[in-house]
Structures are given as C-alpha cells and as structure tokens.
Amino acid sequence: MELPPATPHDARPPQVSVDFEGAPGCIAEARETAVTFLGHHAPRAPHARHTFHDDVLLVVSELVTNAVRHAPGPLSLELGLLPGGIVVTVRDTNASAPRSRPPDRTGGRGWPIVQSLATRVRVVLRGDGKTVHAELAW
Q1: 92, 34 in Cβ contact below 8 A?
Q2: The model's pTM
Q3: 115 located within any domain
Q4: 105, 38, 85, 33: which is closest to 63 by C-alpha?
Q5: How many CB atoms lie within 10 A of CB 46?
Q6: Which DSSP symbol is given to 131?
Q7: Which whole-number Å values give the CA distances from 138 to 36, 66, 95, in the listed order?
Q8: Domain presence at residue 71
Q9: In angstroms, rounded to a whole number, what is the distance separating the alpha carbons of residues 97 and 18?
Q10: Residue 71 is part of a domain; what is its CATH number?
Q11: DSSP state of 2
C-alpha cells in the first residue's frame, strides 16, 4: 500500500484506515500497513537496535491478533499521527473489554505488552463491538 506523504496544506494529521475480514492472514497485512505508514510519517533512529517502529509494530500485531482470536467477523485498523507520537486504533465485533490472563503456551502476553508500550490505552465498548486506542510517544 502506497501512502502519500503529508503536505503542509493537510487540514488534519496523516492517518490511514484499513478494513479486514478478520482471518489470520490479516495480521501480516496490518503490519505491512503500519510499516508503510511509519516509513512515511515517523522518525527512525538509524543505529538503534530497538526502535519506536518496533514498538508500534508490536502493538499493531497484538491488537489485531487479539481481534482475530476473540472477535468473529471484520475488524479495522487505523493509524494516525499525534503531536509527538502515533495512535493505533483497532475496532472489532467483540463487545467485551480486553483483559489480562496468566500467560501460557498459547497466549496471555499480548494485552500486558500493549499496556506497557503505550503511553495511553483507551477501550470504548459499543453495542456491536469495541474500539481500542493505544497511543505511543516517540
């Protein structure tokens, strides 16, 4: 996916929104969307072993994976610039709030990872699902 670079005349910060069917293959597509968006809009430390980009990709992967595992049906991913960071938003069809569970071989690590990497996490429950917003600062 090719995203246009931001211009000084844009009325709002750059963002991208993509809808997915909710199949496991969409996790890789969501990461590719994030890589493209970050490449156009986020600073990158050239010699750092672990970067802001890595954190954003991990949050995208975890939120989309949780949606695929726990919400039947379509989901959407939105990435947007904030002053000093990025917001990752995932909407799905499960109206239950994410929760931590003891980690085991099959999972239980994703939600704590998102909470530790994000500077702010908000969950909005709707009648037809939920929206999770995770903000990350550069």
Answers
A1: no
A2: 0.86
A3: yes
A4: 33
A5: 6
A6: E
A7: 17, 24, 30
A8: yes
A9: 22
A10: 3.30.565.10
A11: -
H-helix or E-strand containing 126? strand 120-126
Do the Cβ atoms of 66 and 77 come closer than 8 Å? no
Q: For the chain, how many structural domains are there in total? A: 1
For the chain, give the mean pLDDT: 88
Percent of the chain with pLDDT over 90: 66
Alpha carbon 109 to chain centroid distance?
A: 16
Listed as own residue / partner, the contacts of 107-112 with beta carbons closer than 8 Å and 24 or more positions apart are 107/69, 110/62, 110/63, 110/65, 110/66, 111/62, 111/66
Decide if 16 contacts 41 (C-beta within 8 A).
Answer: no
Structure tokens at 53: 């980009």
Is residue 46 in some structural domain?
yes
Q: Which of 9-13, 80-84, 98-102 has the lowest mean pLDDT?
A: 9-13
Averaged pLDDT, 90-116: 88
Tally of residues, the chain: 138
CB atoms within 10 A of CB 51: 17
Which tokens belong to 41? 């809009």
Helix (H) or strand (E) holding 19: strand 15-20
107 within some domain: yes
